[in-house]
User: Fold VWDE protein from Agelaius phoeniceus.
Amino acid sequence: VFCTVTAFRRGSPEQQSLPEDSKGFYAGIKFLPESLEIAEDGKEHVLTVLSTVPIACPGQDDSCKITLQLSTEDLGKSSQVPGPPDIALSACQVDLLPGPCSGSSCAAARVTVTAVTDFAHDGNRVSRLSARLAAPGDVLWRAYTPRDVKVTVRDLPTGNCYSFTDPHIITFDGWRYDSHKIGTFLLSRSESRAFEVHVRQWDCGGHRSATACNCGLAAR
Assistant:
């Protein structure tokens, strides 16, 4: 919403100045920020959904709210076929509740966005975050769709560790050694999240040599 003003003399209205536009006011529901650039580093990024106009539900004061259903879509790269979404949300829907307006915000909700660590070197990818009204009962919002949010995910190289054959082990930081013991061992454990890998080694050398080989693993 904005105003356009044109000046002219009262005696000669046909001679008008160039129009001047006022600063626009966005009337509707929008995301802030309107675009995101994040990386595959596990960090959460806050996205605010706000309405710049009051949320009003005549006759429904006890259950007055606007529910937005959120969805993501991978747009991929121009040379690639779109795949699974490259971002994850903390919630599938948000509610905008009525309240007093402050500045340009009359109702707000938050959702966090995290890049999916896919362990694939697939380059930077673009995803789209969309919102639609879950139950558009109010005639004011019935045909309304908020603008999408463009999320660019920067690809980061991921670490690798290995245990192969009889077992030769290469750690994340490049150390190499052999393990010829029999049993079940902890191969890797994360200190920041619930992730670990166990490996089982059995005797594959028989009477000729004491050699152990990988025979199974379990991952959480």
About this structure: The mean pLDDT is 88. Residues 48 and 110 are 5 Å apart (CA to CA). DSSP finds no helices and 19 strands in the chain.
